[in-house]
Amino acid sequence: MSNSPTIVKIPWDGVEGEPIHIEDLQSQLQNIPRDTRYLRIDEDAPSADDWALLGSHFTGVENLELESGFNEDLRDQIPLHWPLQRLELRSAIAEVITTPFIREGRVPHLSLLLTCGLRFEGPTSDELQMQHEEAVKRGDNEEEFFTVGEGTPEERKIQVTFLPTLVCDWMNDHFCGADSKKDRENKPSSCLINMETLEIFENDAMDAFSRMAMALPHIVSNLRTLRIRSTSGLDFHYLTEEAFRYTLPTLENLETFNFTVGEVFDDPTYLPTLHKFLPPNLTTLYIRGPTSLCQSEQWSDWLKSFESDTFLPKLQKMAFILDLHYGDVLASSSRRKNIVPPSDALEQAREACRHLCDIAQKRGISIVDMPVEHINAGDLFMPVDPRW
Fold first, then answer.
1. pLDDT at position 279, please?
2. Which of 115, 126, 261, 371 is the most exposed place for a label (fewest CB within 10 A)?
3. What residues have CB less than 8 Å from 358, skipping those under 6 apart?
C-alpha cells in the first residue's frame, strides 16, 4: 500500500469572504484510479450524494482518512463494500457515529484524530435538540437565554441550547434512569469483531474511550492495541475521570498500551497511582508523561511495582519518558500550558526514568524508543524533547 494517500476534496462554501474554489467531485474522480487503496477525503465531510459517487467509483479502499474540515461535521455513510483495514476520523465533533465499520467493529484499526464529543449510541444531535424543543413546549424543560448588549438600547435575549447538557441528560437517563435495563442499542452480533487497534489523539481522548467502552463493551474488550494521547486539558466533558481508570484493568486482551498524558487530571493523585490500574496482560507498554510524576510521593510505588514479577508479568518491552512540563494556569481557563521543560526538571526526570528502566531490565524487559506521535500528523504534536 502506498505511504501517501490519494486526496479527494469535497467542495464547500468556505469562510464568509474567503470562498473555496474546489473542482467538483465528479471531475476529480475522472483522474483517480478506481483501485485506489489509500484515500483521504479532505475539506468537508461528504454528503449522501458524494458518498454514492465515491462508493461507485472506488472499488477497494483499505485505508480511509475522513477530514471534517472547518465545519467539523460527521457524515459517515462509508460504502460498506470497501475492504477497510484502517479508518481515521479527523476533526469531527458532537455527533453520533453510525457507520457499522465502528459500531459493529468491522474495521481492524480505528483512529480518532482531534475529534471531540463523538458518541457511539443514542440520538443524533439534531434529534436531541428536537426532543428538547418538544419538552420545552410541554413545560418539562425550561428555555435558556443569553443576553446581548445588556444595559443598552439594543439589549436583547437570544435563545440558546447547550448540546453537552442535552447529551449528559440523555446519558444519565440511558445508563441510570428507569429505562436503563432495556435492551441496549449496540448488541453484539454474530459477525466476527475485527477491531483490534484503537487510537485517540487529544481533545477528549480519555472521555471518548470511556464513552466507547460503555456503548460498545464487546468491541473494546476485544482490543489488542490501545493508544491514547491527552495533554491539552480538554478531557472529561461527559464522564468523570474515574470512568477511564475503571475501564483500563478490565482490558484483559490488551497487549500494547501507548499512553501519552499530561497534567490533565483534577485529582492530583490520579496519575501517580495509575500503575495500579494498568491492563494486566500487557506485553508492550509506552508511557510518556509529565516531569512532575517522578516528583510525586507515589513515585517510589512505581519503582516497587516494577521490581515485582507479579506486576505486568507478561511485559516484554517498554518505553518510559517524562518530558512534558506545564506552566501556570491559563487566565482564560483552568488549563495549564504545556511548555518546554527547564533543564533541571528534565534531568531529574531522566534520572528517575533511568532508574525505573534499570529495574525493568533486571526482569528481562527490553527498553525501546517511544514510537512517533502520528504517522501522518506528527507535526501537530510536540515530539519527545531532543535533550532526552
1. 97
2. 126
3. none
- Give the per-residue pLDDT at 337: 84
Contact 69, 46 (CB under 8 A): no
- Measured between alpha carbons, how far is 132 from 74 in angstroms, rounded to an integer? 21
H or E element, residue 207: helix 205-215
Task: Name the average pLDDT for the chain.
Answer: 91
The residue length of the chain stands at: 388
Strand intervals (E) in the chain: 6-9, 38-42, 63-67, 86-90, 109-113, 144-148, 156-160, 197-201, 225-230, 256-261, 284-290, 317-329, 336-339, 366-367
Q: Is residue 94 part of a domain?
A: yes
Q: How far is CA 4 from CA 39, 111, 149, 335, 373, in A?
A: 9, 17, 51, 36, 17
CA-based end-to-end distance of the chain = 34
On whether residue 108 sits in a domain, the answer given is yes
Q: Which residues pair with 348 in a beta bridge?
A: none
Number of domain units in the chain: 1
Q: How confident is the model at residue 16 (pLDDT cuts 50, 70, 90)?
A: low
DSSP code per residue over 5-26: -EEEE-----BTTB------HH
Residue 76 falls within a domain, yes or no? yes
Asked whether residue 166 is domain-assigned, the answer is: no
Query: Which DSSP letter does residue 44 get?
Result: B
Which domain covers residue 35, as residue numbers?
6-123+181-380
What was the pLDDT predicted at 363? 97
The C-alpha cell of 278 is what? 494498568
Residue 79 has pLDDT above 80, yes or no: yes
- Tens of pLDDT, residue by residue over 229-277, are 999 988 998 999 999 999 999 999 999 999 999 999 999 999 999 999 9
Cα separation of 339 and 330, whole Å?
12
The string of DSSP codes covering 255-285 is: -EEEEEE-S--SSTTTGGGGGGGS-TT-SEE
* Report field, pTM of the whole predicted structure over 0.70: yes
Question: pLDDT for 126-160, tens place per residue?
Answer: 999 898 888 888 888 888 887 877 878 887 888 78
Q: What is the CATH number of the domain that holds 310?
A: 3.80.10
